[in-house]
Amino acid sequence: GVEHSVTLPSLRKVLSCGAPARNDILQRFHRMLPEDCEIFTPYGATEALPVSSIGSRMILGETAPITDAGGGTCVGLPIPSVKVRIIKISDEPITQWKDDLVVAAGEIGEITVTGPIVTREYYCRPESTMQAKIIDGNDVWHRMGDLGRIDEQGRIWFCGRKSHRVVGENQIWFSIPCERVFNQHSHVFRTALAGVGDKGKQVPVICVELEKGVAEVNTEKLIAELIEIGSKYPHTAAIKHFIIHPGFPVDIRHNAKISREKLSEWASEKLKGRI
């Protein structure tokens, strides 16, 4: 649309769902919109929707630099009827709510939600209910399976899926904060964090998908540049393994959610005997 000078003067509100929209896409789209129009990205899940929402003006004017530095993706303030708490990361069921589950302010943990929009159970799936629901008197907290933090303004920052975290001996790496740092490189279309090895002893690996049009690239030079970028941030400084991937596997519904599980298997094969 921008290339052909197309504008959309009658639009007043745009919703972008399924996955956080990239900042460069928001910037391009804004050039086609009237001044009073904004792009909103709601956050939630089938079991709890919507949890929060954020507008493109806040993203482009305030949160984008924090995201680019690995602070996570801001998904806005919780809607008024919803309570959000960040709890300690665990893969085990939690049957009863306790306040000591909650992490310190600003710390990354699992996002949990309670309110009228939250489902109480899964139909005929007691094991799934046990894994995702926490009883709190008459209320139910839903474990989103997402990791994140809450800032001093009460905004939620999404840091990736719990199942996508890479757990090493001395550090835990979270997908969104790590990937965003390396996405800054001009030759990189997108990256994905993968873990090689058993949890607790995993080695972080960054899979790299190049921008279209980058026909030939000096792989050694590119990797050296990515290592240099990562060294500027404490949470990515220890990442030393990078692999070029021809095209990430994504979900067929949104065509945006990367299958990091498949990439981890692929990375393990590619690096067999080297890690």
Topology, element by element:
Blueprint: E1 13-15, H1 23-30, E2 38-45, E3 48-55, H2 56-68, E4 73-78, E5 83-87, E6 109-114, H3 126-132, E7 133-136, E8 139-150, E9 156-161, E10 166-167, E11 172-173, H4 175-182, E12 188-196, E13 203-210, H5 219-230, E14 241-244, H6 260-270
Question: What would you say this structure looks like, in words?
Answer:
With 275 residues, the protein is of the alpha+beta class. It has two domains: 13-161, ANL, N-terminal domain (Rossmann fold), CATH 3.40.50; 165-270, GMP Synthetase, Chain A, domain 3, CATH 3.30.300.30. The protein contains six helices and 14 strands. Strands 1, 2, 3, 4, 5, 6, 7, 8 and 9 form a nine-stranded mixed sheet that branches. Strands 12-13-14 form a three-stranded mixed sheet, with helices on both faces. Strand 2 and strand 3 (48-55) form a beta hairpin. The radius of gyration is 20 Å and the shape is globular.
What can be said about this structure in brief?
The chain is built from six helices and 14 strands. With about 280 residues, it is an alpha+beta fold.
* Form type: globular
Q: What count of structural domains?
A: 2
CATH architecture of the largest domain: 3-Layer(aba) Sandwich
**Could you name the CATH homologous superfamily of the largest domain?**
ANL, N-terminal domain
Number of strands: 14
Roughly how many Å is the radius of gyration?
20 Å
* CATH top level label of the largest domain: Alpha Beta
On the 0 to 100 scale, the average pLDDT is 95
How many separate helices?
A: 6
- What is the distance, rounded to the nearest whole angstrom, between the alpha carbons of the first and last residues? 46 Å
User: Secondary-structure element order, as H and E?
Assistant: EHEEHEEEHEEEEEHEEHEH
CATH topology of the largest domain: Rossmann fold
Return residue spans where pLDDT drops below 50 for at least 5 consecutive residues: none
